[in-house]
């Protein structure tokens, strides 16, 4: 029944995580019916984000400014650096408002299986930030997966020579759990009970 | 953590039916990370639809052309007209590919409670289409709710004087059920067993 434009919109929405063909259809119908209240704001927001989208050269966060709003925020404690695998992990931790410092996004985790090597991640940039000084504590907030923990150990080894405290999230995390899926209570507990990497 | 633009995008998505704050955040993250594969097509599709969106002056369908693609399709049986409450019902019926005719969208149903009167719906336009001739059967496909059935009876009364067969969907529909939520099997059965309005 729908024109190719409406079909294309439905398909573009259906490909988003958490949406399927059915919910995409309902969303499109909603957009068509609420042109001013729903379609226009979504289009404006998407346009603005697309226009200004940037990856932060400092931390790897995705934002509409570079440096990102976290790196540019003077209220953030520059002495604390939290290393995460992915932007989604950064967002999850930041949402919890439990970590007052800044972040470093690795862009993945080491994986023999998927052929992800240290040079495929932003580990050299991380070393650079730590070597530049001013950082007291590096919190390794990798996922509690085998690959996440391998990555944490690898990084801990690489930064051992710097005068920084290296900690990792307490393993109250469910085994195999992905950071981005945890409730804030679990995240809070894991962060509070963070311990030095041995 | 996010800029106001990214927040605005998250909120615009979170307001769509079937999405909440959490799935909207995941969708936004996906869009940010897959700028070429996800963000660009969505923006293009939304832009195209927004640019050309129109309500069909004939049937009330929402499409990117007026007359809509159904009204403009010569393969559609112009002698059969299916009257629905809402565009979503039209889409649901059309998706099932069971109805070969055209549609008429009322834009709601009569409701004493919500103060919806006949003149608030496109009933006069429907009468006009029937009066213009060429229609053999009018299928009343209102929802199986009290208000839907009240609306069906009201319309059946108004078009009694025309030489058309007036039918309604068989009431195999679950009581209180909304057309848009039914599976195609139920829709098919209801359409096959449609019966004259007494
Ligand atoms: Zn940054
Ligand atoms: Zn039409």
TrEMBL record, chains A, B:
Keyword flag Metal-binding: yes
All residue ranges annotated as the Toprim domain in the record: 79-174
SUPFAM superfamilies: Recombination protein RecR
Gene Ontology MF terms: DNA binding; zinc ion binding
Gene3D superfamilies attached to this UniProt entry: 3.40.1360.10, 6.10.250.240, RecR Domain 1
Keyword annotations of the record: DNA damage, DNA recombination, DNA repair, Metal-binding, Zinc, Zinc-finger
GO biological process: DNA recombination; DNA repair
Function: May play a role in DNA repair. It seems to be involved in an RecBC-independent recombinational process of DNA repair. It may act with RecF and RecO.
Official protein name in the record: Recombination protein RecR
Taxonomic source organism: Sphingomonas oleivorans
Gene that this polypeptide is encoded by: recR
């Amino acid at each position: 029944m729908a024109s190719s434009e409406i079909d294309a919109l439905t398909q573009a929405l259906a490909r988003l995580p958490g949406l399927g063909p059915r919910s995409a259809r309902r969303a499109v119908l909603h957009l068509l019916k609420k042109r001013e209240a729903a379609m226009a704001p979504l289009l404006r927001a998407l346009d603005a984000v697309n226009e200004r989208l940037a990856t932060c050269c400092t931390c790897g966060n995705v934002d509409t400014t570079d440096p990102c709003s976290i790196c540019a925020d003077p209220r953030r404690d520059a002495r604390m650096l939290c290393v995460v695998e992915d932007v989604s992990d950064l967002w999850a931790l930041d949402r919890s408002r439990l970590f007052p410092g800044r972040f470093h996004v690795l862009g993945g985790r080491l994986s023999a299986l998927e052929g992800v090597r240290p040079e495929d991640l932003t580990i050299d940039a991380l070393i650079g930030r730590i070597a530049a000084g001013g950082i007291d504590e590096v919190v390794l907030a990798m996922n509690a997966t085998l690959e996440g923990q391998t990555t944490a150990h690898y990084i801990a080894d690489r930064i051992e020579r710097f005068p920084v405290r290296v900690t990792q999230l307490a393993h109250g995390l469910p085994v195999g759990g992905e950071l981005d899926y945890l409730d804030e209570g679990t995240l809070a507990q894991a962060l509070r009970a963070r311990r030095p990497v041995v």
